[in-house]
Structures are given as structure tokens and as C-alpha cells.
Amino acid sequence: DAGVIQSPRHEVTEMGQEVTLRCKPISGHNSLFWYRQTMMRGLELLIYFNNNVPIDDSGMPEDRFSAKMPNASFSTLKIQPSEPRDSAVYFCASSPRSDEQFFGPGTRLTVL
Amino acid sequence: SQQGEEDPQALSIQEGENATMNCSYKTSINNLQWYRQNSGRGLVHLILIRSNEREKHSGRLRVTLDTSKKSSSLLITASRAADTASYFCATDAFVGKLIFGQGTELSVKP
How many whole angstroms separate alpha carbon B2 and alpha carbon B99? Predict the structure, then answer.
């Protein structure tokens, strides 16, 4: 199994641009999570899906952030418009049950 | 707000020594998990301990849980340079949702 796949691995963009991060969970996992990690705030849960349905999006910072999961094998996290304070490493994780989570390698986002 | 808080924030030891990291949390839990993160990589699950368990072992890892004190500890025995990483505890706020602590940065010197 390839594990959780995220793309791109690195993204550098300018303030105001739209950014789309992509995630392919492990096949058969029914839960998917988006996290953001920064030195200041640590690892924060942004949103999570169960069976493709958003269950809790209380961690999404503001309306500039949106996430979708159109099917069991794909999810996107979009930031529009991006701001410098969005610079962070964004992780996607999936889980077959309500316990152990499997993390992807992350996308390092830099907004100039 | 953070559910889990690790202590110490950083730990430096020599290869072969034991490393102990602690985690405290605030609310009732179903389980507590420990994860490792190597620099620039994603988190890797190490071990899960349920609220009705007091101790669990996995290889060189030993985890304890004291629900009365709302605390857990992770012991790595006979540490190796390859154990150098950040270690996080995570608690389940409710089913499926984990809240991570700030982590302990472990450095094992050869």
C-alpha cells in the first residue's frame, strides 16, 4: 500500500492567490482528516470527514478555507485568497476506524 | 485549546539511556495515543492505550496511563540515535477526533 498521498509536497505562492492541496487516503479508510502544523500553534485539526461527509469543521480558520471530499479516494483543501499567515505544513491523515491515524508526508505551503 | 500537554518540551540523552516523556490532559478520554514525527515528515502512530488499561508494551516502548491523574508516560528503553524525533500524545475529544499536544523533542546522541 502506498500510504496517504499528498500533492504538491511544496507550494510557494503570492498573497491573494488560490491554493489547492490534494490528498488521496489509504484505500478502505473511511475517515479523513486535514491538519495544519506551525511552530506557534502546533498541530491543529482543521476538518474531518467520515464516509465522505464533513463531520467537524470547527477548526477551519475562516471562510477563506474550504474542504471537499467528492469520493472515498480524494479530498481537497482550498485557500482563497491565501495570506502569509497561512504558511504552514498541511497534513492529511486517514483512518480505518476511530483510533489510529495514518499521516501523509505533508504539503509545505509558503505564502509570500 | 490543547487537550494534551507534553513534558519536557525537549530532552537530550545519550544512546543506550532510557527516555521518559509525560503527557497530561484535561477531559475524559476513550483512548490515548502516542505518535512520532521525524523532521520534515508526517506523524507515525506508535501505540494506543485505552482508558481501561494501565500499561502497554510494544518493543522498546512502554506506555502507562493514569486516568485519575489524567496523565500518561512514554518510556523508550535503550534509546538509539534513530529514535531522535518529536513525540506527541493525542487524546480523543470524541469518536474519531484527536487532539494533539505540543510534543517533546527528543535528541539521542551517539
Answer: 7
Contact status, residue B60 vs residue B78, Cβ threshold 8 Å: yes
Asked if A43 and B48 come within 8 Å (Cβ–Cβ), the reply is no
Q: Rounded to whole angstroms, what are the CA distances from B68 to A112, B4, B52, B71?
A: 47, 15, 11, 8
Q: How far is the alpha carbon of B17 from chain A, nearest alpha carbon, in Å?
A: 28
Query: What is the spatial distance between Cα A35 and Cα A83, in angstroms, rounded to a whole number?
Result: 17
Measured between alpha carbons, how far is B56 from A4 in angstroms, rounded to an integer? 27
Q: Would an 8 Å CB–CB cutoff place A90 in contact with chain B? A: no
The lowest-confidence range among A14-18, A81-85, A97-101 is A97-101
Q: Using CA atoms, how far apart are residues A6 and A104, in angstroms rounded to an integer?
A: 6
CB spacing of B48 vs A100 below 8 angstroms: yes
Tens of pLDDT, residues B75-96: 999 999 999 999 999 998 666 7
CA B109 from centre of chain:
20
